[in-house]
Amino acid sequence: MTTVRRPTIRDVARLAGVSHQTVSRRLRGDPTVSSMLAFHIDQAVAQLDYRPSLVARAMRNRSTGRLALVLPAGNATSSLPLLSGANEAAREAGYAVEVVSLPAAELRGNRVVELADSGLYEAVLSLTDLPDPPRRRTDTAPIISAPVYDEQMRDIGPISEATRMAELVTHLAEHGHRDFLHVTADREHPACTRRREAFERQIRELGLRSAGTIDCRGDADRARRAVLDLPAGTPVTAVLASDDTLAAGAVRGAVERGWRVPEDLSVTGWDTHPLSAAMIPSLTSVAVDHRRQGAELLVELLGILSGGDPVMDRPAITAILWRESTGPAPQRAREA
């Protein structure tokens, strides 16, 4: 078996025609390295695909180049792109990210503190709220809490931001819709709760009418049934769903009733499922940029480590994608 040796700093120095001390100074960003030497060193680094050893870096600088990203135990579809964005931002800054998943009991205990005290990480970023930690030594890695999920791995914070729901209602009202139905995945879920509250608030403020909110428990067939159960002659012309799965169920229910989407019923979703653009009709939905959220969290963490302040106001990570499932309200009464 052939073992491929990783290039070393001395290999870079040999190819660039300089000493390994000069390469080390360039990698540290030393401004005294001339531009010509820096150019040759950068070329050698790129040609050899050289990556500094984390072990050597730790021995030299008492730093590890590693960041711990703490998540609650559980599943959230948003976590994969979020972690991907965080990983990419960390890599661009010269760090490696390690994801640590902890059950609620360990989040409330000393496990996060143990991570910070281990000497393995330069910082610990928790994506959920943490209780006040016990007294710690002053020479351990900082712990920063940036709540994105609750202890049950449910979306909170910017991911659950619901102002787009008000925009959906307003846009449809401007196109003649007056009677709405909301189907939600889970009344107890923080993100679903915020979307429902935004829906109900905008209905009241605009003087519109709601046929209520139906808890479909994430089941597309329940959303389908919600549309089928609307009474004959119902005035409802728009169904707003808390996710694309329920919206697809609502579209199915409309088709089974003989209604056309959007001519007879407009339907909106949330979270832009990959298939939502391929549906017939394509589904109006709210896109959530989880990857950007993860990247921004890592950049903020690194800024705080450098002495900066937390970012208090960022552009929203959501945007409405208007597609074929929404249109003007019908001009004539429908028959069930």
TrEMBL record:
<dbReference type="Pfam" id="PF00356">
    <property type="entry name" value="LacI"/>
</dbReference>
<keyword id="KW-0804">Transcription</keyword>
<keyword id="KW-0805">Transcription regulation</keyword>
<dbReference type="InterPro" id="IPR046335">
    <property type="entry name" value="LacI/GalR-like_sensor"/>
</dbReference>
<dbReference type="GO" id="GO:0000976">
    <property type="term" value="F:transcription cis-regulatory region binding"/>
</dbReference>
<dbReference type="GO" id="GO:0003700">
    <property type="term" value="F:DNA-binding transcription factor activity"/>
</dbReference>
<protein>
    <submittedName>
        <fullName>LacI family transcriptional regulator</fullName>
    </submittedName>
</protein>
<dbReference type="InterPro" id="IPR028082">
    <property type="entry name" value="Peripla_BP_I"/>
</dbReference>
<dbReference type="InterPro" id="IPR000843">
    <property type="entry name" value="HTH_LacI"/>
</dbReference>
<dbReference type="InterPro" id="IPR010982">
    <property type="entry name" value="Lambda_DNA-bd_dom_sf"/>
</dbReference>
<dbReference type="Pfam" id="PF13377">
    <property type="entry name" value="Peripla_BP_3"/>
</dbReference>
<keyword id="KW-0238">DNA-binding</keyword>
<feature type="domain" description="HTH lacI-type">
    <location>
        <begin position="7"/>
        <end position="61"/>
    </location>
</feature>
